[in-house]
């Protein structure tokens, strides 16, 4: 029988294998020469950025067929493969930071940063009982208190902050009204602004925050239109969020007399891909019907990865995830994220780091 030490060593080896294949993603043009070369990446937010923090009992990201493209089995990413964090890390020339939950098992990887993002969360408490963004920042503060990092060491770090709309979903589920939505959007952006400033005050030199993607174009919204058109009303709310966010980031830069804060333009990157037509010799992939997901439940009662009490799957899966922009009703495929990453909108956003 294997000894406890041997079993622990094998477990750590498995984790290293899981997180070591995360470098080779889509190549893109980077700014050169670098005025600032980040050495660490800290990630906060939700399922667009989470690489494995959610508890297995709560998250679909640990169920088959999630992860079938990378790493070949469910590993905690809300996609068939790599997500936004992986592509941003590649752009910055940093290894994908490990999820916070593996910080003790993979202590040696902490030099590249940490991913604190938890799928389903927001700036406020959402329907998912996982740490919200305030608590995620508390985790970084705790690592500083434990001298895992120093404030001086964070000067070589960049933060990626993802907010993909879970606060708004919670608002609607809790019977929030259309009349009250603008005020709620302002409160979400207000709390997000507090969070961004706090991350910077902890010592992180550059803080990147994603704009909100066109929520009305997610399959959960386009299903009512047979995946043929977006919901314009939802996207109007998104536009208000993004306008307020741009103003908040501009104010933060003025207050700090810096260019430390910048927006990663996920909104226009999504729009570019969704509206792209098939063109010969184009660098970025296009999708025949970008609004239709690859993996979806057989009815409204089920979702991607669902099985019944007998273990029979209750979802349908496309034959080729690379042909789809969306993986499930909310998240892009790895190929979808690659397309988003390669857009001019996202590339120009990331260049703001320098």
From TrEMBL:
InterPro entries in the cross-refs: GDSL, SGNH_hydro_sf, SGNH_plant_lipase-like
A molecular function GO annotation: hydrolase activity, acting on ester bonds
One GO term (biological process): lipid catabolic process
Signal peptide: 1-28
Keywords in alphabetical order: Hydrolase, Lipid degradation, Lipid metabolism, Signal
Similarity comment text for this entry: Belongs to the 'GDSL' lipolytic enzyme family.
Designated name of the protein: Lipase, GDSL
């Amino acid at each position: 029988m294997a000894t406890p030490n041997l079993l622990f060593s094998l477990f750590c080896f498995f984790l290293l294998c899981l997180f070591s294949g995360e470098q080779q993603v889509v190549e893109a043009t980077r700014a050169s020469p670098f005025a600032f070369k980040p050495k660490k990446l800290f990630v906060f937010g939700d399922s667009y950025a989470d690489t494995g923090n959610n508890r297995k009992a709560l998250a679909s990201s640990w169920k088959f067929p999630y992860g079938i493209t990378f790493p070949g089995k469910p590993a905690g990413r809300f996609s068939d493969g790599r997500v936004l964090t992986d592509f941003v890390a590649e752009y910055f020339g940093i290894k994908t930071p490990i999820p916070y939950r593996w910080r003790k098992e993979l202590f040696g990887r902490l030099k590249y940063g940490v991913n604190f993002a938890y799928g389903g969360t927001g700036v406020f408490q959402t329907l998912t009982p996982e740490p919200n963004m305030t608590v995620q920042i508390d985790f970084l503060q705790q690592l500083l208190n434990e001298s895992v990092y120093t404030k001086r060491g964070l000067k070589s770090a960049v933060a990626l902050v993802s907010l993909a709309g879970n606060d708004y979903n919670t608002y609607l589920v809790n019977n929030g009204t259309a009349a009250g939505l603008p005020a709620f959007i302002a409160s979400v952006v207000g709390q997000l602004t507090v969070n961004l400033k706090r991350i910077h005050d902890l010592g992180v030199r550059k803080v990147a925050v994603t704009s909100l993607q066109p929520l009305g174009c997610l399959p959960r919204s386009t299903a009512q239109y047979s995946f043929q058109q977006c919901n314009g009303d939802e996207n109007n709310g998104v536009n208000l969020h993004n306008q307020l966010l741009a103003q908040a980031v501009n104010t933060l830069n003025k207050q700090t007399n810096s260019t430390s804060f910048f927006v990663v333009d996920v909104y226009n990157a999504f729009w570019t891909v969704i509206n792209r037509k098939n063109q010969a010799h184009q660098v970025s992939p296009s999708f025949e019907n970008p609004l239709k997901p690859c993996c979806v439940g057989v009815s409204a009662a089920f979702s991607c990865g669902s099985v019944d009490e007998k273990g029979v799957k209750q979802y349908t899966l496309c034959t080729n995830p690379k042909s789809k922009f969306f993986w499930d009703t909310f998240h892009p495929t790895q190929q979808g994220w690659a397309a988003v990453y390669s857009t001019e909108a996202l590339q120009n956003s990331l260049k703001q780091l320098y």
